[in-house]
Predict the structure.
Amino acid sequence: MQPILLRNIHRPNSADIDAYLADGGYKPLATALDRAPADIIAEVKTSNLRGRGGAGFPTHMKWGFSAADPNKPKYLLCNADEGEPGTFKDRPILEKDPHLLIEGMIISGYAIGAEYGYVYLRGEYPAAFHILYKAINQAKERGYLGDNILGKGVNFHLEVHSGAGAYICGEETALIESLEGKKGQPRIKPPFPVNVGAYAKPTVVNNVETLANVPRIIEMGGEAWSKIGVENCPGPKIYTISGHVNKPGVYELPMGTTLRELIFDHAGGMRNGKKFKAVIPGGASTPILIESQLDAKMDFNSMMAAGSMLGSGATMVMDEDTCMVKAALILAKFFTHESCGKCTPCREGTNWIEMILERIEEGHGKDGDIDLLLDVCDNMRGKTFCPLGDGAINPVSSAIKHFRPEFEAHIKERKCTVLK
Amino acid sequence: MSQQQPIPTITVTIDDKPVVVPKGSTILDAAKVAGVDIPVICYHEKLSLLGACRMCLVEVEKMPKPVASCVTPANDGMVVKTSSPVLDKARGGMMEFVLINHPLECPYCDKAGQCELQDLTFAHGWSQSRFSEEKRRPGVNYDNPLLERDYNRCIHCKRCIRACDEIQGAHALDTIFRGSHTIIGEFPSGALSACEHCGSCLDVCPVGAINDRMFKFKARPWQVEQTVNTTCTYCSVGCTLTMDVRDNHVVRVKPYENSGVNQGNFCAKGHFGFDVVHAQGRLSAPMIRKFGRLAQSTWDEAVENATSVLREIKDKYGADSIGGIITARCSNEEAYLFQRFMRAAIGTNNVDSGARTGHAVVTAALESALGVPASPSPLEDIALAKTVFTIGDDIAATNPVAALKIKKAAYKNKARLICAHHFVTSFDKQYDPLNLVYTPGTVVDLLKGLLNIILAKGLANEDVTGSYADYVAKVKDSVKDATLASVSAKTGVSEAALNAAAEAIAGSPRCAFVFSRGLVWAGNGEAAVSLLAALALITGNLGPKAGGLHAQGDKANEQGVCDAGALPDRLPGHGKIAEKSDRDRFDAAWRTTLSDRPGMTAGEMIQAAHEGRIKALYVVGENPAFNWPDNAYVREALSKLELLVVHDAFANETTDLAHVVLPVSIFSEKDGSYTSAERRVQRINRVVNPSADVRSDWEALAMMSKKLGHTMSYQSAEQIFNEMTSLMPGYKGLSYPVIRQKGQFWPYQAEVRQGVERITDINPAFVVTTATSAGIATTPEYPYALFVDRTHYHSGTTSRHTAALGKIYGEARLRIHPDDAASCGIADGDHVAVKSARGAVRATAKLDKRVGKGKTALTNHFAGAGAASLLSWQLDGELKTPVMLGCAVAIEKERG
């Protein structure tokens, strides 16, 4: 497949507005502003674009809720807090093609009636901050941002806001809290941000990749765009693959590419001729899959059917030499560190899981520890304030599900039997 | 009553039981209606919803996973299960999560026995823990002098943070760190903490993570022998509280459910100032001056001594050579008995109270302005207001719990605050008020200016201008010269701010007007109160659904002592001395013939003593030698007396000059009633027994009276109260047992069996006044203007004896602007000498920008360091109020 989203990134100076314009940039904006906002939403509905942040919520529905809310002003927030371990799909857009995001935001803002937008950028992306900052200024100078865009009476003001390094701020309500200058902790839902979001006003929070798709949908037409990938979940998808493969990196492929194609056709297969052992298909918070599931398609529905989630499409591949207890511990430590501490089960549970895994890994595991781990996971599942808690138990419970003998061996033998 | 719109309802099924609840209820609300108990940790009825503890999970049909019932809105037709195997396990699991890091310190934790976590563990916990790791020990913080913050025991419910933010508005607490490292404490803690020591966090903490350091290790909850409800007597708000008693000692104060005007909230004085009753230095035996020194005596001796001298003086100089002053912190019964004693036993109307510098003026002014000798509005109306206008004081310092209503309005209704004062008030910290900082002494001009703008712009309420056309015309005429430019020039408040304030006040659907003693202290207080009443009236804020006019005071019973007749020209129930029909009722009841000559005010008595016309003063609980301006002058006056009888609980500046000193009980040692500034008549109840030779004021007065031949035989405060309700029209119908359960407002309406909270039946009259206040003139010798300051940590001279409050605010502080301090070479915490033409005191400098340049402020609480001693003696207006505004001073850094 020819790249659609990332088609511009290999041009020299691709982040510069002139390179973007040479690629046909800001033409979709001009087209869009001649159409009615409801028409844009309808076009996106035709495309069946689903949110690329991980939940796969139909974008046009989110927009529709906010557009229908009479409260003003409205806000459009771009979630660029790309913090999910293994995920770096938004980064090429942010650093190499920022105008694609900006154009996407202007069109989206127009569609929902928002005149103010913010890019909430991951704190660890300082380069992207400067690139975006410059790009926003360029867009302002050329009349694509600000008041009366392209002389069409449409206003859109855009700012970039750097986060401070909290994973939880990728959760949309925590992102809003953080943007407002408060501690990044999730809010009660309902009310949902589409009605009561930033500064208690209707707010749409969309992922970078989602917004970047908008100019392409306008350009190609929703109908044509929806023919890419699989039914129910169409479009191009940026997959990122890391771990024990020969060619880790960013791959833009049609939605629904199988894990096997991604790992063995695109990423060049397993490194050093090792055997494949396990894969985390959608970022650290998604359940682990094993060899028998490699033919599963990587789209929202198929991944769900396979017992995992597409998430951000961040595929982490592990070979036969990987200790799954250690892998689970490393992931558990991440979630303990990133748990915001607001709700009881996540604050206490993540920490406890880490402690149990740590002692198993160190050879101090006890009989019953595995069942204890599963029960602690069960006591967290579906009961935490926000999805972070569910994400935290996924790698642990799925690692036990697929590799229980490895855990048992750690406890019985008091050491790792995988690592030579 | 206006017709209310029916509230839409929904039907929800909770555990197979259908219940009808108002739309907008949560599942938890519906469960309460259904009588189903759902366990909660982070939920608290007084606070905003958090939904974080996950203890209140319930299952809802068609929802994929359990939901937190406290935050999930109930929908029509919703079917909810609060108990199931899934939920039982979820709750057990949640308890386990909470407990894994909670220390097993129940055997010595102060909360054990009253701990919500213990109860929940008993109900939902598992008997064994599967946690075998080491528990988290983030430590214990002792930075707060009154509160221990035990991070080890904290279960992160954040109730304390929400209480601090939403009720007190102090924003002193926050979560620190993240995830399992989270601690909840003061941020920053120590010297920079924003804590106002109200104890709200302590009261909502479900576990022993926040502990009262005054109470710690004093008693286990089950060792508390008695828990007695009573009323706080530190200020005129009249907060309801509960005292825990062990071994005849008050060990702590707690909220009494959420009842009373305070709804379970306190200020530092109410929560921690209770220890005054057990303070060092309580007077424990009567004393008589012999050979120039006070010597211990018996009650009989002391009473005999005082009455024989009183009789001699009366015979020699006449009854009007004797005067009586009672504190405004005494009970209604004591004030009533005192004036009866002065009028019937001594035979003079020379009776007045400490309310002379407060409500004696306010009630008189309101009576002439509105026909009601009291604040017409209940305090809770402030909380419903959309705009709040405070004037003359920093209400958060004078009446902190009244300020909580203002803060509630700001938090819940996003009310606009307008604070007019000669300083920037403490509301400035969090609530972004419109500050009208006026030149001291120009408050009358400011009010006239606001009235003029509103009337000139036609912003007055149309109903009012229609119904009270004459009144409005009179006001208009009286303020016509107060043009924007002239008022701005005189008050120093910008024209833009005056316009903005006038528009905000007049444009608001509900504006509450709140003031305290400061409005009276500036001089010309009657005019100021009258103009403020006019402002409230013409903006339509004295009606049924309005912001109201709220007069507060320093002392607890300012309204009550005036109601009870401790005024030189008024009888109990505000009857006039000059009016024969009013006197007749009391002549009959007391079997006497009352003098028809109005007596002297307290200020006039002091002056008359100085001039030798008053020979004896009977002082109950008041401390004029310290509280009144120009201490030196007052002391001279008191020293000239042939007899000075003083009732007090502590030795003070006035007892030092007395001939007879009688040791009396403090509010927690006696029974009686108090009338708060919103007219709420409430009980104080004996919580502990006083020591053997300490009696209540009314017992002492009855002994004296009997000796003087006027027998007042009462067995209890209740009997006095009943006599009062039979003779005072406003109090008619009030019941002593009923006010013990719940205060009652006066006037009482028998038909509906309750008091009138909001007096809307007013009779406005505008009294034109031209008097103006002199303000403060500084000189090169005395370059700074000093004002009598207030702090929410102290009240009068009683609170100087509490150890708890002393830990926070234990010495006189002079607030001074950093620039002025710099030019005097003064740093924060330096000892400074403050000198005026009338005296000098020492204080500790506290740099504070809010006082403004050229202005300083000093409290009047600490022995030898009172601001009042620096003022000069001046009585103001017809009501002869001592002017307490301030004076010009020089400030020097003390060497060494």
